[in-house]
Amino acid sequence: MGLVFNSFFAEGISQLSYLVGDDSEGTAAIIDPRPDVDVYLQEAQRREVSITHIFETHIHADFMSGSRELAERVGGAKIYCSHEGGAEYDFEQEGIRSGDEFTFGDTLLKVQRTPGHTPEHVAYVLAEKDRAERPWGTLTGDSLFVGSAGRPDLLGEGATEELTEQLFHTLRDFYLRLDDGHIIYPCHGAGSACGADIGDRPMSTIGYERRFNQFLAIDDFEQFKKFVQQGAPPVPAHYPRLKKVNAAGPPLIGHLPACPGLPVGAFRQQAESDSVQVLDVRSMLAFGGGHVPGAINIGGTRPELSVWAGDLLDPDKPILLILEEDFQLPRIITLLWRTGFTNFGGYLVGGMKMWQNAGLPLKKLPQMPVQELKEDHNTQRLDVRSPSEWQEGHIPGAVHHFVGNLRDQMPDLDRTQPVATYCASGYRASLAASLLQRAGFEKVHNVPGSWKAWTSAGYPVDNGG
What we know:
alpha/beta, Metallo-beta-lactamase, Chain A, 6-stranded mixed sheet, Oxidized Rhodanese, domain 1, 17 helices, globular, 3 domains, 23 strands
């Protein structure tokens, strides 16, 4: 009986949240909760603790915070947020400052200011009450990751220089002074754009990071600044929006966002309106074989649906869903909720078989295998991967427009010529192709297998920039 400690991984957004508590006292805290909060309620019940505290490390940009949702569901739990660095909130919460302490049985949780990723950022240092001077772990939020550190450029160019310097000092003046055996528990794992090349492991030690994390190895600030700037991935479009949502306070729902089932006639009537957006989460090959005209394809078999929807869908327009199977609805809604989507017009009951059986119009997205692409010199080859992927090698003759920026860069493409989109495997390529079709491009192809298929076939590679 004593310490209760659990981590919770949210696929898609690659986010980690934590439960820290004491089952002899029956109290617990949740740190950085996501919006689908049932997982915390179930674990607290299983571990026989009551959630009495909810802590945020900072105002998140990459996912919708679940703090208000959780506080409403448990009743009586307070939300604790840092106000240092000028952070302001438009919802009920308690301000915390560096040095504040909270106890859960024999466990001490101490607030430590760690600015750099954001001005208000804090970490939570864990220790036994009678050994407070020898902490054993830290919930690092987005300040220090496995093999990486939080990016300081999310608040715009005007704040980046100051945040970069703050991050430099946070890493050196706090983290590098901890013992090698000290355990770090970050808020994100591999796949998150909150840091560059975050490692796969969900936790690490200061000793390991001291040896292998390049962010901790650079002692000169100018070199550090250059390294940080070079390694940052593109900023997803939904980050500034979710920053505002989380500072204002996400809407309270009390359950999974509602998404009614619509018979084909009602679905068609809504889909023909410009005030909605149709999201088809079927596989690229199923989408290519026939889809509702104007639909956007973001495959739901992969949890990255959360991120790409956040980046490319309009949060102000209701979403109409087309599923592979109706039973997938709760999972798809959950993935979309994590990046702030709560407004759903409904889903097509019975899926595309009901649409086709009703004799309604179908749009196709032809698939172009790499063997055809290699021999076709009249089709524009559009690489929609990230800049770093492009620089590591691409198909000869291709042009590069990252899928996250494609809507703004469409005028650079020749609408009179056929275009074939490719990415690493075809997932993002199908998304990009559906965006082009929706924008009126008529001669669009997707390349299944994409870069993996091209290189597996042994075809030539251009390693130039």
